[in-house]
Amino acid sequence: MKERFDRKLILSSGSEYRCRGFGCRDERVLEIVFNTSVVGYQEILSDPSYTDQGVVMTYPLIGNYGMADDDYETAVPTIGALIVREYCDEPSNFRSTETLGQVMERYGIVGIEGLDTRRLNREIRDRGSMLGVITSSDTTVDRGLEMIADYAVPNDAVSRVSRGAVQEYREPGASLHVVAVDCGMKQNIIRSLLCRGCSVTVVPFDTPARTIINMNPDGVFLSNGPGDPTDVTPVIETVRQLRGRYPLFGICLGHQILSLAYGARTYKLKFGHRGGNHPVKNLQTGRVEMTSQNHSYAVDEASISGTSLCVTHRNLLDNTVEGVACEKDRAFSVQYHPESAPGPQDSAYLFDRFVAMMKEGQPHA
Questions:
Q1: Residue 340: pLDDT band by 50, 70, 90 thresholds?
Q2: Residues 300/49/325/237 CA torsion (nearest 10 deg)
Q3: Rounded distance, CA 340 to CA 275, Å?
Q4: pLDDT value at position 364?
Q5: What H or E segment, with its residue span, contains residue 259?
Q6: Calpha distance 297→125 (Å, rounded)
Q7: How many CB atoms lie within 10 A of CB 270?
């Protein structure tokens, strides 16, 4: 028998949801978003793109296969909270070494369960992502709204999750060298490059273009990460200086940064795209990919027309831009996650495309 409700979620709309706590039990104000993935809660929990966000899982049972040492996307998770219908504290999985709740308690991640997540997800869908406070069960709605009103939304998320120093990943026999700009990079991106014969040098987000040039890369990768892309001005300027010199490949936040560097604009979506079931059409081949996504912002298609970019991929659910390219500069990016952990493998060809561009061996400008 689970204990009675001891926690409460209050939204900026004035709605309140009674619930039970697990993991860390701090009081916390954060942006509330939802994810439609059926599996992969460990990868979601450890994806730096969820920094400062409270993620509502639409799948009702979470925690049932525990946590495996090899499945983290980052060493120190920075997600704000995990919100679930039912939390399982007795996982059944031979690979599991800890429960989800133990990991969340260790890293200060707030967890709540027992609330009506269907109602909550419908509210986010209808009203859009909004701020909320996870607090004790005796907090009044008026007090919760005061805490939300006093909250200052941070704009330094990338600087908090990016590596503080250069890190090398060497693959025996590798013939290509990729410099990856870390804005909150998922570990599976590094694995995807290593298995294709690339050695990877991961650099902090604010690494100057000249430093990257001195590393003599064959290509430059722009990673995923949290927050508003317009906040990450050092990376935008670095891309402006590197475009045309090396093949460039961006994923998620990296896609938005590349687009901004070419003069396009971005905007915030009503409730974002989060989950492993988004159909995206490749406009160059006509094929439809089932993609894994996690982002709040999108590239404004109208703003692309004045740049040297062209739209290469489109989301079939809401018609948003999912990929751009500048063939002249050997630069391209996608909004979704081709490394797909969690998610399908429809889009892995994008890494192959990046490798092929680097192997062309065109002289550097």
A1: confident
A2: 80
A3: 10
A4: 45
A5: helix 253-261
A6: 16
A7: 12
Q: CA 48: distance to chain centroid?
A: 6
Percent of residues, the chain, with pLDDT higher than 70: 98
Q: Can you tell me the distance from the alpha carbon of 107 to that of 310, in angstroms, rounded to the nearest whole number?
A: 42
H or E segment to which residue 125 belongs: helix 117-127
Indicate the residue type of 12: S
The closest of 191, 187, 197, 204 to 219, measured between CA atoms, is 197
**What are the backbone dihedrals phi and psi of residue 260, each rounded to the nearest 5 degrees, phi first?**
-65, -40
Alpha-carbon span 172 to 120, nearest angstrom: 49
- For residues 87 and 41, give the distance between their C-alpha atoms in angstroms, rounded to a whole number: 11
Euclidean distance between CA atoms 24 and 26, whole angstroms? 6
Q: Examine the pLDDT at 236 and tell me if it is beyond 90.
A: yes
Using alpha carbons, select from 262, 285, 278 the residue that is nearest to residue 335: 278
Does the pTM surpass 0.85? The reply is yes
Tell me the catalytic residues.
252, 337, 339
User: Are the beta carbons of 2 and 112 closer than 8 angstroms?
Assistant: no
pLDDT of 362: 45
Residue 152: predicted pLDDT: 95
pLDDT of 207 reads 98
What pLDDT score does 36 carry? Answer: 95
| Reduced DSSP (H G I as helix, E B as strand, rest coil) percent helix, strand, coil of the chain, to 5 | 25, 35, 40
- Pairing of β 167-169 and β 198-204: antiparallel
Q: How many CB atoms lie within 10 A of CB 344?
A: 14
Is the per-residue pLDDT at 108 higher than 70?
Answer: yes
Instruction: Please state, in angstroms and as integers, the Cα–Cα distance from residue 365 to each residue in 244, 245, 329, following that order.
Output: 7, 5, 11
**What is the pLDDT at residue 1?**
55
